[in-house]
Amino acid sequence: MNANYIAGAWTEGVRAYRNINPSDTRDVIGEYAVADRAQALQAVAAARAAAPAWGLSTPQQRFDLLDTVGSEILARKAELGDLLAREEGKTLPEAIGEVARAGSIFKFFAGEALRPGGEAVASVRPGVGVEVTREPVGVVGLITPWNFPIAIPAWKIAPALAWGNCVVFKPAEVVPGCAWALAEILSRALAQAGAPAGVFNLVMGRGSEVGAVLLEDGRVDAVSFTGSVATGQRVAQACVSRGAKVQLEMGGKNPFVVLDDADLGVAVAAAVNSGFFSTGQRCTASSRLIVTDGIHDRFVQAVAERMKTLRVDDARKPGTDIGPVVDEHQLAQDVKYIGIGRDEGARLLAGGEVIERNPDGAPGFYLRPALFTDTTAAMRINREEIFGPVVSVLRAKDYDEALALANDTPFGLASGIATTSLKHATHFKRHAQAGMVMVNLPTAGVDYHVPFGGRKGSSYGPREQGRHAAEFYTTVKTAYTQA
User: Fold this and answer.
1) How is residue 208 annotated by DSSP?
2) Which of 24, 149, 298, 446 would be a feasible disulfide site paired with 175, CB 3.0-4.6 Å?
3) CA distances from 217 to 140, 162, 211, 239 (A)
């Protein structure tokens, strides 16, 4: 059984979790240790004990650690990508791409360890010097989702370690394989770097046990969470109540606007990619296509025709476009919302059927991508995040109405537009109420070296990724010196 990693040692759990391949539910990937509350407390104690020494480690030591991890991930991207596709259901090319991104993230933050920055500022008082520097927060709890099981852990773990923090990492229960593989790579790199035991800890287990410790324990100085809105709100309340820093990414209901002047091919490709690739299980996915009157019918027809060519099959099979949904619970949620859309009066133009077995006869959690038309902004399928390959089309009379519909959502993560008009593209970039805006590109797919995050109900706290990650993983100190 693959164990947890606590205080520099592999530790058996209180029970085992059977990791099932969603492309073929007969395939058991492995058994992984499940930690309980007591083991989570041990991990927190280990991180707290290691924090003083690691916080004073040299930039070179941290660079070497992260660069080593990044190099191994990149060297093993085919192997790790195969594990990711087998475990989560993302197609193999997408999975390998995610692993490569994780490796690049570690490489990027290795460089950031050598660029801590700071300011020397003249005081308003004669003879006084002022220095503004950044120091590690201390112990950071990281709670990650299942949809990007190696990239999201990477973009939390790497900056935490780069700026001298110690980590307690709780991955989503349904994807322990990638988390364990990443921890195994880190364990060897940490030993090579001579890091204190407890700098990094992996505790796989339930949110109600392991996650609760990270939220409640006063020895955890900060918590970064990616997941559902309901859980994120509980995370925020728990952290704020005890004065811990908190960073939340909670999903979206992202719009993709298609204007009359759009290049039809570009618009269709971006919409299909945004809505259906990775089985629609991306917080940046476009689940609302807002299309103006002049191009509406041609666009909808073209999307429906493109959907007919999408191959739903085993995630690791060559030629697969759409893999399975991650598990039976997510599949049930997707099916529920397809029923809700029908009950609300939306027209299911294409897809939406459950596929119990793939073409080879393997049982899995397959769903043919669904496209709804004749929808209104008030429908639940346009208000609530489904997190599956379910997309709806809203008709708009012009750009102004399309923009209003795009912003008519409690979320604000990503927003996209297809247009050849510089005027409309420029206006949309400024007026879209989202943290990230894409023009003639899919909303899903962001670079690793720039900020990631949203507005409104999508995000809370400082941005993730890029140099902006320092706002969460460090605290600012101002020091005065009398000459």
Assistant:
1) I
2) 149
3) 11, 23, 10, 9
Q: Which of 249, 328, 384, 385 is catalytic?
A: 249
| CB neighbour burial string for 314-350, b if at least 16 within 10 angstroms, e if fewer | bbbbeebbbbbbbbeebbebbbebbebbeebebebbb
∠ Cα 230 233 235 (to 5°): 110
**Which domain range does residue 399 map to?**
254-439
Catalytic (active site) residue 283: yes
| Cα(255)–Cα(184) distance, integer angstroms | 39
Domain with residue 100: its CATH number is 3.40.605.10
| pLDDT at 368 > cutoff 90 | yes
Please state, for a pLDDT cut of 90, what percent of the chain lies above it.
99
Q: Is residue 334 part of a domain?
A: yes
Average pLDDT of the residues of the chain: 97
Q: Cβ neighbours of residue 270 under 8 Å, at least 6 residues apart?
A: 256, 416, 418, 438, 440, 441, 442, 443
CA separation (Å) from 362 to 69, 307, 313, 405?
36, 23, 10, 41
Q: Is residue 450 part of a domain?
A: no
What's the pLDDT score for residue 483?
Answer: 77
Q: How confident is the model over 119-132, as pLDDT tens digits?
A: 999 999 999 999 99
Catalytic residue, candidates 166, 178, 239, 283: 283
Whether residue 204 sits in one domain with residue 324 = no
Residues 376 and 428 in one domain: yes
Residue 399 shares a structural domain with residue 261? yes
Q: Is 249 tagged catalytic? A: yes
- Tell me the β-bridge partners of 256: 289, 416
Please give the structure tokens belonging to residue 260: 């009359």
Same domain, 121 and 53: yes
Provide CB contacts within 8 A for 367, sequence distance 6+.
279, 312, 324, 325, 331, 334, 335, 352, 353, 354, 355, 388, 389
End-to-end Cα spacing for the chain: 61
Grouping H, G, I as helix, E, B as strand and the rest as coil, residue 457 is coil
* Number of domains present in the structure of the chain: 2
pLDDT of residue 170: 98
In a domain, 452, yes or no: no
Q: What is the DSSP letter of 211?
A: I
